[in-house]
Amino acid sequence: MKGIATFRAFGWKRNAITLNNIFLDTSQRPAYLLAMIQRWLGFTLQLLVAGLALVFVTLATQLRSDTAFTSASLSTLMSFGDQLSYVVKSYSMLETSIGAVSRLKTFSDKVVSKKLEEEIVAPLREWPVKGSIDINHVSASYDNADVDSARSLSESSNTSGASSKKLAIKNMSLSIAPGEKVAICGSRGSGKSSTILLLRKILDSLPSTAEIITIDSIPLHKFDRQILRQHIIAIPQDPVFLPDGTSFQANLDPYKASTESECRAVLMTVGLWYFVEDRGGLASGMSSDTLSARQKQLFRLARAILQARIRTRERVAEFVEKGPGAINRSILLLDKVSSSVDQDTDRTMQSIIHKKFKEYTIIIVSHQLEMVISFDTVVVMEKGKVVKAGPPKELANKKGGKFRELWLVGNKR
């Protein structure tokens, strides 16, 4: 009954009960109709059996027949109704199940895998080593129809047509050095989150621009997208948890690559260990509904830190052999991680990020402009395009600039 105190405080109890009853009636209507049909089917079958019994008894009494055979037949006829009902119900369930299988087959046939033929490269375990990113004149769209249209536009060197207006990212160019901390800002729908999705290959670039996105000088389009996402640490905007009842440790590390001590350490880092300990420890089941918005964000951050710890642990031998230069920087992508937390939690998260991912290349999408002022570079986007990029303090003081406009609006809130 999460949130019941809020309903009582605002006097929403009666309206909530009424609305719940309406939804309950609507949701149970198919089940009620099914029960009615089943009862009618049972009644009809019983009438059929009664008719057969009447005919059989009439024939048995009017015709000369064997007494033992007649009694055995009557005994069998008494259970014939239940058997017939069971056969009909089983057939109905089979028909429903076959329909489900048919839908699954249709889904499998019609939904095309996003994996492309050129995705043949599986990155090495230590990739990315430097964390450099280069994007040169890249465009991307969420609509496959727009991809084909934009392809013809790009071939004719005309990207200002009607279809280009539907592009999520338009002619984007961005170069990020190893270990650089970059913040992406802009108004809603400007293409900030699309840039994160592009680097994770959740959003594909247009075929004509696919080869000009590189990480550590390797074209991104050649990498297997599933393996790629395991090598780049990302914290999405919306938290995702395993089904209720799954342990805290499994939610932290679904791939089971960490130890209990590592899980405990990262939870201590983000301040969630005592919360987990009070609920039975790492092995106990958890429900995401028991976590507040703040705790969900911190839990996601703990996952990212754990991934980094595992990555570092796997390369300890190489570190000993080759020295500190062998420890890779890698890449951390963050999408509006502070959108649902208070300022104190936001400061805590930023402090942890800067401390634990000091050597990483960090790209963050944020509306909290006070946070990005400490980054190396801020990228301002508008309508899918990069309109300005540079040091945040410099852009904040530049009169007439888009970032200064966003900065002033943010400080008025």
Automatic annotation (TrEMBL):
It comes from Cadophora malorum. One of its GO terms (cellular component) is membrane. Residues 154-408 form the ABC transporter domain. Gene3D superfamilies: ABC transporter type 1, transmembrane domain, P-loop containing nucleotide triphosphate hydrolases. InterPro entries: AAA+_ATPase, ABC1_TM_sf, ABC_transporter-like_ATP-bd, ABC_transporter_C-like, P-loop_NTPase. It comes from the Eukaryota. Keywords: ATP-binding, Membrane, Nucleotide-binding, Transmembrane, Transmembrane helix. The chain crosses the membrane at residues 40-60. GO terms for molecular function: ATP binding; ATP hydrolysis activity; ATPase-coupled transmembrane transporter activity. Coiled coil: none annotated. This is ABC transporter domain-containing protein.
